Structure formats: structure tokens, C-alpha cells
Amino acid sequence: MTAKTQDLLQRNWDDVRLFLAVARAGSLGVAARRLALDTSTVSRRLASLEEELGARLFERTRQGLVATRLAELGLPAAEAMEAAQGRFARDTSGAEREAEGVVRLSAAPGLAQDFVAPLLIKLHARHPRLRIEIDASARVIDLSRHEADIALRSVPPEGADLLVTKLGSSRWIAMAAPRLHQTLGRLRRWDDAPWIGWDSDMSSFHVSRWLAKHAPKAELLLRTSHFPSQLAAARSGLGVMLVPEAHSARHGLVPIAYGRALAAAAATWPIDDLWLVGRRALREVPRVAAVWQFLLEELRG
User: Fold this and answer.
1) What's the CA dihedral at 211, 209, 216, 224 to 10 degrees?
2) CA dihedral in degrees (99, 103, 109, 112; nearest 10)?
3) Would you give the DSSP letter of residue 187?
4) How many angstroms separate the CA atoms of 220 and 178, rounded?
5) If both were cysteines, with which of 31, 53, 252, 282 could 21 make a disulfide (CB 3.0 to 4.6 Å apart)?
6) Which residues of the chain have pLDDT under 70?
7) How far, in Å, CA of 13 to CA of 237, rounded?
8) Alpha-helix residue ranges (DSSP H) falling in 185-222
């Protein structure tokens, strides 16, 4: 560890807190909002910190601030200091400190829409000083690079610095709007139904592979990798789609009836697991611990 890195880690908590906010936000403006400060104040304090260290912590680019090697070296210990500060506050107050501040959560679009967003009113009632930022993009968020505090994943990531807890599993099954279900009756072949499927960028997705294998000649009336759009089209009666069972009741979709010849294929419905993932260094930080425990209680099973 360099002398500059040691100097960074030995600074007072206000400097470390500002450093962490900027590292996580990648933007002075966003960091300022999270710290309830003016952007000019954050810029001035960051410049002062870098001047004292004699080196840049962040490179200024058109896309935002990018952590330098010095900043990357200091991040793990700075997060450990944040966790220790949270424990100190709880221990010395004699009661658990109120969770407050911003927690950034990563979740797939459908999961964010159907399960996470509707739960936020309940989370707010329990912790009114928490603020949630949801990244519902389809891309995989890298927690180790501080792109999120907590993530909901279908595939558990690996890493010694990560905590991973399984919440449950769900099958994807063929479903449709009740009117289309009635029109189709009992399917003899999967190809006999109009389908809604994933675009070519998701061809390796296990759900796409199932459809390609069992309904290779099916007419796909819609291809999109935006799951909420698939659900909206299915609700309108456009076509049949594979849907996780947990989502079906929320959208009024019903399972397609099929004949005995299709039972073997139905026995191989794709299955998704749901994992709660977080960074070990942040697990005891009150704002992160509160959201982690809430999601564990509400989504497990």
C-alpha cells in the first residue's frame, strides 16, 4: 500500500464520505445531491483533498468522473471505514441508528416493475429517510466497481467481496390473455400458436433456446428483449409468451392448455433462480442493511 493511499484512509470521516459518494456516483452533481451539498462545495472539497494527497483521485471525462488507480486502492478500506462508522453510531447510541440516505439497487426490468417498485411504499413507511435508485437496465451491473449497492440476479456472481443469498426459484411457462387462451383451445403443437419472443441479442437466453427448440416454426408476432413490453403485448392478446409463474397473476395471464404430446416439452420449462447480492464491506452500513433485510423478508420464496 502506498503512502498516499495510507494518507487517504487515515483522513476524517467527512472526507472519506465525500470520496465514497463521488466514487459511487461518478458525477459531482449526483454526489452533491446525495450529500445534501452544493455541487461547487463538493468540487472544491474534492480538489482540496486531491491537492493534499498530491495526486488525482478521479479523471474528468465527458462521461463523468472515472476513479484513478489511487482511488481504486482506497475504496475497499474506505467502505470498511463506512461500515465501522455505522457500527460505532449504533453501539454508542444504545439503539440502531435510523437508516437514511441513498441505496442503489440493480434489478431486471420485469422484476423491478412487478415486485420491487410496488414494495417501495412499504419500505418507505418503515424507513422514511431512505431513498432508492433503481437501475432496471438489462445490462449486468458490476457491484465490485460500485455501480450498485445491492442487486437482484438470476445468476449468482462470484467474488470473495460479495455476499450472495438465494431468495427462490420460478418456472417460465407458456401463458396468454384469457381471450386468446380460449380461442386457441388445447394446443397439439407449440407451433400452432402465435408467439411473443426475445430479440436476437438474447438468443442464448435459456427461455429463447426453449422456444427455438420446441416451436421452431412458430410465427413470432413480436420480438423484443424488453420484458415489460412482452407482458403488455401478451395482456392485449397478441400472442403466447413464456412467463415466470410469479408474474402471471399480476398481468391477468393464464397457462396455455396443451395436449399429452406436449407434456414432455412442458416438463422442461426453463427455471430461474433469484439471488440477492451485495458487497460484504457495505453489509453493516445501516441504509444497505435495511434494504437487504427488507428484500429478504418480502421476496424470499
Assistant:
1) 70
2) 0
3) B
4) 19
5) 31
6) 1-11, 86-97, 160, 301
7) 56
8) 206-214
- Name beta bridge partners: 18: none
Residue 241: predicted pLDDT: 97
CB 274 within 8 A of CB 152: yes
Tell me the pLDDT tens digit for each residue of 36-63: 888 999 999 898 888 888 889 999 888 8
218 and 251: one domain? yes
- Backbone φ and ψ for 199, nearest 5 degrees, come out as -75, 175
Is the domain of 186 the same as that of 241?
A: yes
Determine the pLDDT at residue 96.
45
Residue 258 DSSP class: B
pLDDT of residue 1: 45
* Cell numbers placing 199: 430479440
Of 45, 65, 93, the position where a domain reaches its end is 93
One domain, residues 120 and 214? no
Contact 256, 179 (CB under 8 A): no
Alpha-carbon separation of residue 260 from 235, 266, 267 (angstroms):
26, 10, 11
% of the chain at pLDDT higher than 70: 92
Q: Give SS3 for 190.
A: helix
Neighbours of 71 (CB within 10 A): 22
Domain end (from 42, 74, 93):
93
Find the domain containing 126 and state its range: 101-166+273-299
What is the pLDDT, as a whole number, of residue 95?
Answer: 42
Summarize pLDDT for 133-177 with one digit per residue, the tens: 999 887 777 777 778 899 999 888 777 688 899 999 999 999 999
Classify residue 66 by its DSSP letter: E
Distance from C-alpha of 80 to C-alpha of 300, rounded to nearest angstrom: 28
Looking at the structure, do residues 290 and 234 belong to the same domain, yes or no? no
Between CA 277 and CA 254 the distance in angstroms is 31
Total residue length of the chain? 301
Work out how many domains the chain is built from and give that number: 3
How far CA 27 is from CA of 44, 52, 135, in Å, comes to 14, 21, 16
